[in-house]
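Q: What residues go here?
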């Protein structure tokens, strides 16, 4: 039995050393990353039993990517070897007032060649507690979207909880295109983990101006946002939202919130995050939320654990939160202060 199975695209990540610009680079550091893969890698490091579903080309790059996942204990038995290329993205890490930026080279990557019957969803979802994917996967191609919808439908039939992150990417599609597609997916979703902006701009959940303080939602507005979401989509059992306030590329404020069984809004602490590597912070938060749900943590503990995972991820090079459960538990013991462990 798998705790979590994820479906998406993992790519080869190439980034100049340190904070060099791409135009300066004479070499690139290699990593692997993709939203869904980042989530299952993080969960596997916390002790969850995870699996990843995708398509890789039958070549050494595909083999290297499989080995990356296996190294962290992610089951790769459902990965299909098909297609001609692995998607690539080039990351330029931001610092100070210069933001990070990404250039994608993922057209015609292997996952887009998926056809009905390539993936044995019947076998996979017969042994799964939570199935996870994101709007990034939905945006890739019609083939991938059709496969995702089929998996969501079968998951609902089998009583598997569907977790979803809107994860809008402007380099993949527009807000209008995302709204049209993700509105079709939302009736299958049990657990929504995303952020305020994506809810408002992709799902078109309108919040009146009076509930804002500048560009930030007030606490009352955050409660209304969740209530409107669950009113529009009655199937949503759990909504967990992240909020990020960017001071610079090197320092962010991050927190999360949700609604408890009594209808009260529960907030995490607001964490000041020092950024070494920005990519994958939201995925670390998502992994923490899913871990909390799997283990029945109270909302406050779940949020503290999730935001701490996000904070830790920002200190780690690469896409995934490579942290242990013992490291994450420090925050629940009020010991997340960064002092050297001797």
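A:
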């Amino acid at each position: 039995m798998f705790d979590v199975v994820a479906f998406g695209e993992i790519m080869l990540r190439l980034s100049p050393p340190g904070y060099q610009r791409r135009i300066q680079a004479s070499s690139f550091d290699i990593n692997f990353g993709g939203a869904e893969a980042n989530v299952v890698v993080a969960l596997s490091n916390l002790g969850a039993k995870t699996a990843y579903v995708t398509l890789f080309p039958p070549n050494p790059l595909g083999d290297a990517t499989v080995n990356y996942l296996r190294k962290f204990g992610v089951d790769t038995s459902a990965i299909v070897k098909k297609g001609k290329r692995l998607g690539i993205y080039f990351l330029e890490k931001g610092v100070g007032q210069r933001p990070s930026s990404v250039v994608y080279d993922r057209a015609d990557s292997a996952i887009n060649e998926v056809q009905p019957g390539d993936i044995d969803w019947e076998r996979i979802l017969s042994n799964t507690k939570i199935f996870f994917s994101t709007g990034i996967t939905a945006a890739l191609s019609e083939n991938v979207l059709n496969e995702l919808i089929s998996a969501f439908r079968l998951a609902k039939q089998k009583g598997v909880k569907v977790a979803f992150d809107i994860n809008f990417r402007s380099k993949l599609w527009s807000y209008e295109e995302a709204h049209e597609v993700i509105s079709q997916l939302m009736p299958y979703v049990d657990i929504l983990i995303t952020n305020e902006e994506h809810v408002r701009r992709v799902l078109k959940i309108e919040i009146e101006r009076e509930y804002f303080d500048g560009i930030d939602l007030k606490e009352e507005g955050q409660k209304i946002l969740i209530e409107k979401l669950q009113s529009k989509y009655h199937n949503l059992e759990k909504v967990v939202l992240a909020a990020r306030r960017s001071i610079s590329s090197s320092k962010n404020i991050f927190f999360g919130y949700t609604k408890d069984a009594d209808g009260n809004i529960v907030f995490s602490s607001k964490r000041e995050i020092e950024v070494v590597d920005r990519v994958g912070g939201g995925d670390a938060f998502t992994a923490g939320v899913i871990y909390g749900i799997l283990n029945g943590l109270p909302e406050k503990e779940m949020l503290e654990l999730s935001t701490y995972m996000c904070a830790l991820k920002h200190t780690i090079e690469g896409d995934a939160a490579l942290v242990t459960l013992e490291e994450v538990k420090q925050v629940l013991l009020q010991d997340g202060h960064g002092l050297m462990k001797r």
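A: Context that may help when evaluating the design: Residues 142-157 form the longest helix (16 residues). The domain at 35-54+120-332 is CATH 3.40.1190.20 (UDP-N-acetylmuramoyl-L-alanine:D-glutamate ligase).
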